[in-house]
Specification:
Shape: elongated
Number of helices: 4
Helix content: 40-55%
Largest sheet: 5 strands, antiparallel
Mean pLDDT: 79
Number of strands: 5
Strand content: 25-35%
Low-confidence stretches: none
Structural class: alpha+beta
Distance between the termini: 40 Å
């Protein structure tokens, strides 16, 4: 009876670890949804409501470097704050469509990681 409990605990630990750690599917999902914004054109700051507002156009690229278009962003500046450089306005974000798919990708990783862990030594031996 005690050995049966140990097996269940080990299996539960492996499954929970596989689900908790992002694997191939989750990693590829986040890589596909990663967006980088590079500031290209900056307008002169204008005074709006007691604060300076800087508008700039940013080019959006995906993780592979392909252009996804442009977006106009605004930044509120304190009265004594210097104008940020283009490098300071560059940012990396994740597209919103990724987050609803995360539970599905974690389930796929939870299924595939233990399977690959068990089968990979067999494939390596047979491949030699």
């Amino acid at each position: 009876m005690a050995s049966c409990r140990r097996r269940w605990r080990r299996a539960a630990a492996v499954v929970s670890l596989a689900i908790a750690l992002p694997g191939c599917v989750t990693g590829h999902l986040f890589a596909a949804g990663r967006r980088r914004e590079y500031a290209r054109e900056m307008d002169a700051p204008v005074e709006e409501g007691g604060a300076r507002v800087l508008r700039y156009t940013a080019e959006v690229t995906d993780d592979a470097g392909a252009s996804c278009g442009t977006v106009v962003r605004t930044v509120r500046l304190a009265p004594d704050q210097p104008i940020p450089t283009r490098r300071e306005l560059t940012r990396v974000r994740t597209a919103a469509w990724v987050y609803p798919l995360v539970p599905l990708s974690l389930a796929a990783d939870g299924f595939m990681v233990p399977t690959l862990t068990v089968l990979s030594p067999v494939m390596l031996i047979m491949g030699d």
